């Protein structure tokens, strides 16, 4: 079978210990949470860490809670090591961020979700048909931009890597305007997930080698007299297991009369970052989320700015045709899930 | 071939045992069937479910080394130089082997030996094996192969079979007399021109069947030991231990008696393990060189390179029909993409034509099939070898013609039913044939009459039919010996051991052998143990291919067990002073038919027999009768009995995305007598599952660099349980006069009609004809949009003409 290259493995017992190890080893270290992405990538020779730091024992990075900063604001605080299976079935997530429960449920299959974590999915490496293969395969190809080579096989002559963000939950967390708590031995910082990703398929995260994603914070809806909704739609080859060929998240608020007040739409599995579609709130405001004509306009808007490439297996032109369909399905999924519960 | 000589058994008094092809008719040996036809557990079911079963990779020997294979990174290149010094010098490396040390050419078909254990002068596809290493562990072996230096001279690579056919300047196998053509077959039966001339309807179009892989859960794995006694033992995940035995002797230049081949418990094969493979020779050679046991376990990627999967076929078909729905002629021209080596390709090229002449009566028929080499992983036999592809084209054309004639697709197949006990247009002898009953069953089960064409746009039902062989009388290497053999040994404890050469690859052939012997000897199944697929212990069987085992090994098992039954009946009768026919064997007892209080256990009956006769043990065998058309190739595809299948698929087409879901597949299969109905149902469901996956998800292909596009089980998508239809399996039992108790095959036939039934259902759902597999959503959507553009708006259901895509 495919073998791992040798590395040291440590399992810190506290976050501080983990941060100390990261500070010491930096780029030579690789974090492993559930391992569902890191392990195959290690076997494919995509990383050559000297040390792998296992986060499984860090109970303090696990769990879901509502945190109230004051009487009005509420935040769904989710430890990065919380498994996707816990997220998809957690009553607080289902109640306050139904779209996130849907997105977590859409990741891989039940086995992977039992192991895989939210933090791991947020930090998932980008994917491409030319990179997620064995060392032998990549070598036969002459490698590629993302690792060991100089040429891009997706965009001929391309100088920047277009490997695709393929993390279901990231699309939804961008739509929900989540923030990430990132820790290092130097301290903690908070960054909006919309600013976390950068358009570089080689490494698409603004994360320093000594940093660790500790928590994901999702604004919980406040009671405004209206309602808050979120929904996720995923295009994939099979009904389970597969990474997205298209990932669409919608989040919106409605007023007391049911008209859309504000709306956000994010499309991913296209390029290195999830893409926030601009102008959606303006188009949607005053409309209804089950108005198919409105959804078609939103879909058209998204389609205009999304250009699927051959970085993902399957007909790219067809994937582009699917953008409006899955925009519609994300909004309808939000309606079907029901309004989020306000705190 | 001539019949084997009858066995010279002095107690053998049964005349029919001497019949050349030794068949026993559909009747039970006693008053009624006690085991056969019952819903039994597999003999190895519990061991597999609990993890006790020992697969090849579970075996470990003291001092065992691990092997790895260096593979070609180029699709077509000449090997200028191989330098293994650095690899040999690496700490932990015990041996390195290159092709020059095993120069003998081999191939599963003796007429086309074009493989070597490792490439010598040339590599012909990315993944072709070049050198191998045995080291203390897999990690060291992996490091070592990276240290082997190979200098290549690149050659132009051919990936498109049409180009390979046309190019004379690039030869994948130099010395091949016909350019890149590996085999060409042209056969014509009857006057096609006249038949087309009197046809009221003719359809003529192009079909494409893509490449698909077997994707067994267990990859190839082999373990070799070379003992101080000079005996080489090879444990291998193979479905053809006998051919591996023969080819090992040739390639290793060892006398065959010094080689022992054992096939342990096997984790899926589907035709993908029916060639000898590089790792079997390399493990053996390195064990001989290092004097240590050596194991090779292929990665999933290597399993995709070893391949031997379904051949891509570009098929031009023309079929005619009269207005009352009678087929008049079928004319096909097929270009077969063989990949880099011959493998079973000679047979594939025949099967692409020869196996299409039932269950529908074809008054005239012509086929012209050509297999060419390309610089891709070699194709070979996959479940339904050679005939799944043209069956797709033919069954879609029958539906197109039925539509033109205005006849229901099930009805049109009824009108063309060839019937039982007939001869096909290409000279194949048909015995039992329950295809008409298969049609009836799926028609009723699917609610066809009430639902077909009435489910509204986007939903539809489709039907197709097929036939397949129960083994073939074309023996891979010419010989007059039996195709299958069984030996039975009796212990005084009452245990009976059955030695079977057959490869149980999960289909349950060991279970069937146990059921048959238990039935014949009136024993409890748990008192019968099967030892199988060990060349030192078991009589030769040719292997698990062509759906031959139940039919042939089953007959051999009846033959061996009935001899023993006769002995036991005679001995007990003598002991009791009654006539032998009064001694009945059933349920673990021997008893007097006329005084049923007089009963002894099977063990006691065996002891009496041993005391009166001698040490107990019998043999049995089976060989096919002379079959087939009297022309070159006429025996290829000739089978002692054919199975028949009808299938109805229900589909739902999402016209927004082109994604097709299949809520139900109903398959009715005529397997003669179902010796083990649970196993038959499993084969029917598994076949339908595999066909379903091939229609929509699976695609074995290379990218523009000639690299396998999806050499892993994330990218090479096989259906998950979430994708699967409800499979409804039903069994039709047209008792065959030659099958064991009337049985025929069940392992491959049921796959065939699944694919065209789905294609025909998509037409019923939305009026489009899809002719190019796989039916990806992009293709379906494009066809729907072309249909819309052609009609300038809405069209309804099956009345639409649609666009062939």
Word description of this protein:
The complex is a heterodimer of chains A (343) and B (805). In chain A, 31% of the residues lie in helices and 20% in strands. Chain A is globular. Chain A is of the alpha+beta class. Among the domains of chain A are: 59-123 and 164-219, Uridine Diphospho-n-acetylenolpyruvylglucosamine Reductase, domain 3 (2-Layer Sandwich), CATH 3.30.465; 227-337, CO dehydrogenase flavoprotein, C-terminal domain (Enolase-like, domain 1). The model of chain A has no long low-confidence stretch (mean pLDDT 96). Chain B folds into three domains: 15-32 and 482-622, 2-Layer Sandwich (Aldehyde Oxidoreductase, domain 4); 56-155 and 216-269 and 273-306, Aldehyde oxidase/xanthine dehydrogenase, a/b hammerhead (Aldehyde Oxidoreductase, domain 3); 313-474 and 629-799, Aldehyde Oxidoreductase, domain 4, CATH 3.30.365. The model of chain B is unreliable at 1-20 and 794-805 (pLDDT under 50). Chain B is an alpha+beta fold and 805 residues long. Chain B contains 19 helices and 28 strands. The chains are: A alpha+beta (343), B alpha+beta (805). Chains A and B meet through α8 and α13 of A and α3 and α19 of B.
């Amino acid at each position: 079978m495919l073998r791992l290259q040798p590395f040291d493995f440590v399992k810190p017992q506290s976050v501080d210990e983990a941060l100390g190890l990261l500070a010491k080893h930096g780029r030579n270290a690789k974090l492993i949470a559930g391992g569902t992405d890191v392990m195959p990538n290690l076997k494919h020779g995509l990383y050559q860490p000297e040390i792998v730091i296992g986060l499984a024992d860090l109970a303090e990075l696990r769990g879901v809670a509502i945190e109230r900063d004051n009487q009005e604001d509420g935040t769904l605080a989710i430890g990065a090591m919380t498994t996707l299976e816990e997220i998809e079935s957690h009553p607080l997530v289902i109640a306050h961020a139904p779209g996130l429960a849907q997105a977590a449920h859409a990741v891989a299959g039940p086995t992977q979700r039992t192991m895989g974590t939210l933090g791991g999915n947020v930090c998932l490496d980008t994917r491409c048909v030319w990179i997620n293969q064995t060392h032998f395969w990549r070598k036969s190809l002459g490698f590629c931009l993302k690792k060991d080579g100089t040429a891009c096989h997706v965009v001929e002559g391309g100088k920047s890597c277009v490997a695709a963000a393929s993390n279901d939950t990231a699309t939804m967390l961008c739509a929900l305007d989540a923030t990430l708590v990132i820790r290092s031995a130097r301290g903690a910082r908070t960054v909006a997930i919309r600013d976390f990703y950068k358009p570089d398929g080689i490494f698409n995260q603004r994360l320093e080698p000594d940093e660790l994603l500790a928590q994901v914070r999702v604004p919980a809806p406040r009671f405004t007299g209206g309602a808050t909704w979120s929904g996720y739609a995923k295009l994939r080859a099979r009904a389970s297991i597969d990474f997205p060929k298209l990932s669409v998240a919608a989040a919106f608020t409605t007023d007391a009369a049911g008209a859309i007040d504000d709306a956000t739409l994010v499309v991913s599995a296209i390029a290195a970052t999830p893409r926030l579609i601009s102008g959606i709130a303006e188009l949607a405001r005053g409309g209804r989320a089950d108005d198919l004509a409105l959804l078609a306009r939103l879909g058209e808007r998204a389609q205009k700015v999304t250009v699927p490439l051959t970085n993902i297996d399957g007909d790219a032109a067809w994937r582009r045709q699917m953008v409006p369909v899955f925009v519609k399905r994300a909004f309808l999924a939000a309606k079907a899930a029901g309004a989020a519960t306000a705190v | 071939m001539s019949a084997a000589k009858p066995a010279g058994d002095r107690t053998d008094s049964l005349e029919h045992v001497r019949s050349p092809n030794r068949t026993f008719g559909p009747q039970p040996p006693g008053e009624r069937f006690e085991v056969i036809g019952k819903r039994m557990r597999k003999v190895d079911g519990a061991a597999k479910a609990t993890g006790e079963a020992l697969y090849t990779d579970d075996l470990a020997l003291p001092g065992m080394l691990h092997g790895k294979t260096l593979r070609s990174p180029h699709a077509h290149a000449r090997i200028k130089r191989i330098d293994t010094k650095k690899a040999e010098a690496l700490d932990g490396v015990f041996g390195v082997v290159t092709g020059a040390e095993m120069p003998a050419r081999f191939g599963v078909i003796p007429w086309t030996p074009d493989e070597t254990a490792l490439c010598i002068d040339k590599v012909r596809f990315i993944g072709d094996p070049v050198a191998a290493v045995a080291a203390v562990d897999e990690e060291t072996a992996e490091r070592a192969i990276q240290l082997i230096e190979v200098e290549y001279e690149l050659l132009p690579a051919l990936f498109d079979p049409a180009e390979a056919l046309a190019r004379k300047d690039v030869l994948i196998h130099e010395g091949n007399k016909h350019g890149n053509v590996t085999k060409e077959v042209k056969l014509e039966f009857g006057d096609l021109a006249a038949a087309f001339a009197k046809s009221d309807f003719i359809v003529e179009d192009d079909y494409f069947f893509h490449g698909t892989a077997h994707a067994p859960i267990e990859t190839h794995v082999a373990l070799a030991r070379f003992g101080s006694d000079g005996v080489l033992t090879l444990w291998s995940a193979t479905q053809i231990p006998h051919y591996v035995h023969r080819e090992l002797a040739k390639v290793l230049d060892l006398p065959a008696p010094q080689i022992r081949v054992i096939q342990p418990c096997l984790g899926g094969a589907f035709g993908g393990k029916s060639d000898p493979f590089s790792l079997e020779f390399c493990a053996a050679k390195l064990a001989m060189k290092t004097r240590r046991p050596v194991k090779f376990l292929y990665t999933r990627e290597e399993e995709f390179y070893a391949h031997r999967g379904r051949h891509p076929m570009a098929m031009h078909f023309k079929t005619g029909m009269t207005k009352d729905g009678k087929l008049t002629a079928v004319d096909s021209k097929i270009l077969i993409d063989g990949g880099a080596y011959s493998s079973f390709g000679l047979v594939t090229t025949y099967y692409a034509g020869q196996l299409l002449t039932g269950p529908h009566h074809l008054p005239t028929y012509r086929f012209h099939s050509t297999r060419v080499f390309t610089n891709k992983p070699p194709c070979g036999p996959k479940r339904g070898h050679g005939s799944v592809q043209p069956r797709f084209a033919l069954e879609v054309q029958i539906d197109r013609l039925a539509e033109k004639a205005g006849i229901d697709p099930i009805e049109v197949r009824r009108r063309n039913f060839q019937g039982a006990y007939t001869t096909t247009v290409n000279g194949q002898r048909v015995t039992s044939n329950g295809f008409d009953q298969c049609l009836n069953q799926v028609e009723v089960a699917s609610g066809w009459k009430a639902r077909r064409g009435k489910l509204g746009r986007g939903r539809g039902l489709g039907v197709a039919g097929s036939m397949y062989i129960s083994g073939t009388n074309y023996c891979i290497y010419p010989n007059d010996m039996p195709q299958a053999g069984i030996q039975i040994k009796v212990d005084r404890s009452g245990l009976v051991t059955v030695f079977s050469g057959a490869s149980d690859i999960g289909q349950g052939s060991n279970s069937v052998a146990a059921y048959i012997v238990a039935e014949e000897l009136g024993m409890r199944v748990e008192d019968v143990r099967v030892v199988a697929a060990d060349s030192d212990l078991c009589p030769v069987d040719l292997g698990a291919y062509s759906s031959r085992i139940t039919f042939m090994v089953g007959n051999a098992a009846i033959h061996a067990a009935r001899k023993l039954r006769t002995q036991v009946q005679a001995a007990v009768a003598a002991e009791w002073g009654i006539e032998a026919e009064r001694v009945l064997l059933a349920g673990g007892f021997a008893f007097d038919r006329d005084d049923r209080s007089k009963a002894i256990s099977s063990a006691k009956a065996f002891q009496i027999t041993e005391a009166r006769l001698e040490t107990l043990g019998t043999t049995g065998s089976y060989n096919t009768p002379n079959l087939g058309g009297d022309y070159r190739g006429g025996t290829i595809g000739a089978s002692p009995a054919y199975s028949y299948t009808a299938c109805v698929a229900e589909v739902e087409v999402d016209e927004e995305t082109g994604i097709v879901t299949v809520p139900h597949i109903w398959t009715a299969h005529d397997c003669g007598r179902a010796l083990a109905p649970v196993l038959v149902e499993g084969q029917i469901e598994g076949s339908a599952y595999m066909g379903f996956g091939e229609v929509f998800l699976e695609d074995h292909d290379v990218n523009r660099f000639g690299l396998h596009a999806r050499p892993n089980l994330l990218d090479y998508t096989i259906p998950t349980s979430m994708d699967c239809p409800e499979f409804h399996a039903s069994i039709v039992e047209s008792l065959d006069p030659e099958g064991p108790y009337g049985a025929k095959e069940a392992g491959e036939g049921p796959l065939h009609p699944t694919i065209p039934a789905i294609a025909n259902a998509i037409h019923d759902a939305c009026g489009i004809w899809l002719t190019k597999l796989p039916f990806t959503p992009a293709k379906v959507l494009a066809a729907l949009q072309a249909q819309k553009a052609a009609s300038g708006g809405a069209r309804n259901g099956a009345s639409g003409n649609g666009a062939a895509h």
